[in-house]
Specification:
175 residues; alpha+beta; 5-stranded antiparallel beta sheet; two-stranded antiparallel ribbon; 5 helices
């Protein structure tokens, strides 16, 4: 059974992706596309709200342009001094990824730059809030499109749109 209750088959046989299988019902139509609400105002790292809303809530296949994260303030605001960075759903504010884990910030950035999008590994996934659909689409439990799982020789690699994980924690959005 998939996490959301129906049978799921997937090409991902191991790691977190196998534990976090979800099904298409997660991406059913809601009040705002596949989301209950638009993206938060004032996203982190100066991410563009309109781009974020389109990718998060009205998209199943497309992504921010390759290297978009380099055009934001992410690389100037974050670094080794940041330690582990929590990446929050741009709609719900739930934590989705915590990185870098089991690698340096430099290694996280190097891999992300090589692929064009922030790239997370199994140890960096917040499993209670992330689901992987059988086709590899990576989404939040609330229906936010995040990106795709594109496994490589090192295991599962979650290629994620920065605009999808630039939210602020729930506590901050409720102020």
């Amino acid at each position: 059974m998939g996490v959301s209750g129906s049978k799921s088959t997937s090409k991902f046989s191991g790691g977190v992706a196998a534990q976090c299988l979800g099904d298409e019902s997660l991406m059913s139509k809601k009040a705002h596309g596949t989301c209950e609400a638009p993206v938060q105002k004032n996203l982190r790292w100066n991410c563009d709200e309109k781009t974020a809303d389109n990718i998060c809530c009205f998209n199943r296949h497309y992504a921010e342009h390759s290297g978009y994260f380099k055009s934001t303030s992410f690389l100037t605001e974050e670094g080794d001094q940041s330690g582990e960075i929590t990446f929050y759903d741009s709609v719900s504010g739930k934590p989705l990824f915590i990185a870098p884990r089991n690698r340096s910030f430099k290694d996280f950035v190097k891999e992300s730059q090589a692929h064009g999008w922030p790239s997370f590994r199994d140890s960096e996934v917040v499993t209670e809030n992330v689901r992987i659909l059988p086709n590899g689409e990576t989404v939040s439990v609330d229906g936010t499109h995040l990106g795709h799982n594109l496994p490589d020789h090192s295991g599962n690699r979650y290629c994620i749109n920065l605009v999808s994980v630039a939210g602020r924690p729930i506590e901050e959005t409720n102020k």
